[in-house]
Amino acid sequence: AKGExxxxxxxxxxxxxxxxAQALEGRIDPDSGRIALSDFEPGTFEDVExxxxxxxxxxxxxxxxxxxxxxxxxxxxxxxxANEYSVSAPPIDENTLVIAVTxxxxxxxxxxxxxxxxxxxxxxxxxxxxxxSTAAREADEALFIRAGPEIGVAATKTFSSQAVMLSLLGxxxxxxxxxxxxxxxxxxxxxxxxxPESIESILETTSARSIAERYEGSQSYFFIGRGLxxxxxxxxxxxxxxxxxxxxxxxxxxxxxxxxxALVTPDTPVFAVFTGEEDEKTLKNAEEAQTRGAPVVxxxxxxxxxVDVADAHLEIPETDADLAxxxxxxxxxxxxxxxxxxLDRPIDxxxxxxxxxxxx
Length: 360
Ligand code: F6R
Prior knowledge:
5-stranded parallel sheet
């Protein structure tokens, strides 16, 4: 079932345009240019005062992404690791909405957090890929990402679909809560609808393989980003370590100088994600690493100032700042894939890992 591909992971990376088109199908109203999301009754979220996302691993990175977009829409929100939730959950009441983000819908840590939230009286929603999963059955409401089955242990297309669905859901929550549609939606929707096309163009033109070759054998791989680029940096590093078995870390760009810079040498490439949010600062952080000899790979549109500064460039099409990170993530998925392939790793089934983690 891998068809023309050597691995499910590559097949699933390539399925992202289709997966996203499926996720968006019928959920944006082309006439009004508004989010329809008829998955939920009108006014479902009108009493919501704060939102908590719970998730693990890659889904946690999607949750961080979703939480940031929700904050930008003016809604109080936080993303929490599901396995820390029982000790770290902020206060919950019936005006709290808890959103469990879980591809499989079967992750024990996430289910525990969901149950804890329900016990405390929160309204619960799950954003999941699997209809009939435990999370979908137990949550008050479910939003399906419709990415199709994901076989590779490393989550790829489901991350992209989760993040996009969370940004739609966030807009819907804000609309229910404030009784009006957030004003920045007009600029976001056209770019959302062209996401599949933008990803297609990345897949056709990527130089990820040559970047992977160029930096093969490095000591560590660092990923930095700011704002919506931060969860993407975390996700880039998780994917990289998961399938290459090489050391990789993701940092908030501004944190580099607060410790990790001590690790930076000519042998530690730094992948810098530019999303259009305070890019000048991120560029300065990247240059701080470059001064210590580290090669910098900029992930940004062509013509961006970072291209002149960086040692290498992975191009993404111009898009809304809300979505640029998700395009950058596709380039990083490809870098991880090619790096793992060069090392001849069992890409679809990395050692010690399972597709769905049903123990605490
Ligand atoms: C990483 C990966 C894991 C999962 C995590 C949560 O590529 O796949 O980090 O994201 O185990 O799984 P779900 O989303 O099924 O709850």
